[in-house]
Amino acid sequence: MSTTLSLAITTTLVLYAVAMGIGLARLFRGPSAQDRVLAMDFIYVVGMLVMLALAIRYDSEMYFEGALLMVLFGFVGSMALAKFLLRGEVI
User: Is residue 89 in some structural domain?
Assistant: First the structure.
């Protein structure tokens, strides 16, 4: 791996960590439940991006599969929480 790519991935991971910290702050301080659900959705998307950056860094396909599973479970969780907030019940 070239030094430029290594530096870019390291910078990207640091910025993703900052973004995740901001999302966690919003999750804990959100004034409404909708804000907290949106912050949780943002956090799992940033987590997926971290896994993709690690896949590029370590040249491993396993991270791509983990990122796909993370997004699928996050989507299902977001839909369940949205349905709960709208109707008060999930099923």
Answer: no
**Contacts (Cβ under 8 Å, ≥6 apart) of 83:** 89, 90
Residue 16 is assigned to a structural domain of this protein:
yes
- Angle at alpha carbon of residue 39, lines to 30 and 8, rounded to 5°: 130
Per the listing, tokens 């993703």 go with: 16
Full-model pTM: 0.84
88: in domain? no
b/e code 67-87 from CB counts within 10 Å (16+ = b): beebeeebeeebeebeeeeee
Question: Which residues span the domain enclosing 41?
Answer: 3-83
- Number of domains into which the chain is organized: 1
Q: pLDDT tens digits, the chain, 91 residues: what are they?
A: 789 999 999 999 999 999 999 999 999 998 888 888 889 999 999 999 999 999 999 988 899 999 999 999 988 988 888 888 888 776 6
Establish if 39 belongs to a structural domain.
Answer: yes
